[in-house]
Amino acid sequence: MDQPINQTSRPPYGILAVLMVGAFIAFLNNTLLNIALPSIMADLKVDAATVQWLTTGFMLVNGIMIPTTAYLIQKYSVRRLFLVAMGLFAAGTIIAGSAHIFPLLLTGRMVQASGTAIMMPLLMNVMLVSFPIEKRGTAMGVFGLIMMAAPAIGPTLSGWIVEHYHWRMLFHFVTPIAVSVFLLGLFLLKDKKEKVHLRLDLFSLLLSSVGFGGLLYGFSSAGSKGWDSPQVYATIIIGATSLVWFILRQSQLEKPMLNFGIYKYPMFALSSAISMVVNMAMFSGMLLIPIYVQTLRGISPLDAGLLMLPGALLMAVMSPITGRLFDKFGGKILAITGLTIMTVTTFYFSRLTFETPYTYLMMLHALRMFGMSMVFMPVSTNGLNQLPTRFYPHGTAMNNTLNQVSGAIGTALLVTVMSTRTESQTLKLSAEATGAVTTELQQQIAMQAMLNGINYSFLVSSIIAVVALILAFFIKRATQAEDTTEQKQEGNKVVAKLV
Q1: Residue 201, C-beta contacts closer than 8 angstroms, at least 6 positions apart
Q2: Residue 5: its pLDDT value, please?
Q3: What angle do CA 258, 200, 106 make, to 5 degrees?
Q4: Where is the Major facilitator superfamily (MFS) profile domain (predicted)?
């Protein structure tokens, strides 16, 4: 086989369809939960710093699992990995749906995450090897349209369910769909993979788990325990040390679990940096907007979901359009335009008041999502385009890992900023209060302090977005790196195994 499979045969649309349905359910589940967080806080009697573990705990497991996906994708068939992923996801959904205490709910979310961690890199790899580089932007755009339909439906559906039923219905609703998708994959996907002799380096797996897990746990704990807690800085130090050791070990192995050599390709390295920074900024909106509109403004869950619907729909509609624009113009102009919009809108979110109009919030959120639609897929696709075929599993695994790590760090950082600012403002406003401090006054002070904390967190988020904007000016249109004849043969083997 002299030519890669993506240039000589028809893309495997059947496999892609089944994988996309599975990924859609996983995406839908994630967006369903955001609107329900205030209800979960009230029902299970936990605070914002604790409930954010439903997001960061999900990312923690993803961050630990995803580095192994490069190995798993090369070792096992698409069918086997899909069934394991959907099986774990369905099991986690059932556990979460039956949870009456927070630790059990968190356990269910983490089991779900172990399935999602396999699903997304698997789908991305099949996409990469199925389409030639000149059509990849359009293909990724169509993929983005399907995937962005989940965030469009999720918040509104979640709001309606939470308003009319218990929040556990969010999981009961997903369970039969997840089981059906599992059965669909069981009967429709076929095993074509040859037996591959590939051994997982268990010490690398241990270092990776401690490294990524330690960093994620440390940053996530900061929201509730504070940065001066030994539990926070000790786990961050242990995580960072293990991660450095992991990277050094991978450079010495003949077949590394995660190949950090992909960072010698400059556009991939730049795309990773931009995606990480944008992820950190993005999660501020996903977490802080539902808390602001429901906790401070008393807006119903359904109306909170409807507020976020236009933005999600706009992002979904824009996905195939930005894919075509990427094929025509490249990623630089799209990234600069999108990040400029994102930076400005995030800054305006730092000026919220108790009287900010509902329509204004909806339009501002929609404009922010419009900016994001020009960033993620074009930037990551441009970076992956520079990699030789044999590095696709490592590139997608690395991107997904860093997205989870940066998202969790961003969430933890911004929640910590919000909590710290809220606490300091509470003390300041209480000291400034004159006369008797009544219960009503205490409530007013608490709400004003939280509003100040949310605004300050959005301000920090806009500063983070500026960093990504500066990096975007260094983007160049990527061309696939040339391989030696031996390396091309190895790449073709990777393609043949994946499709």
Answers
A1: 249, 253, 256, 257
A2: 39
A3: 75
A4: 15-480
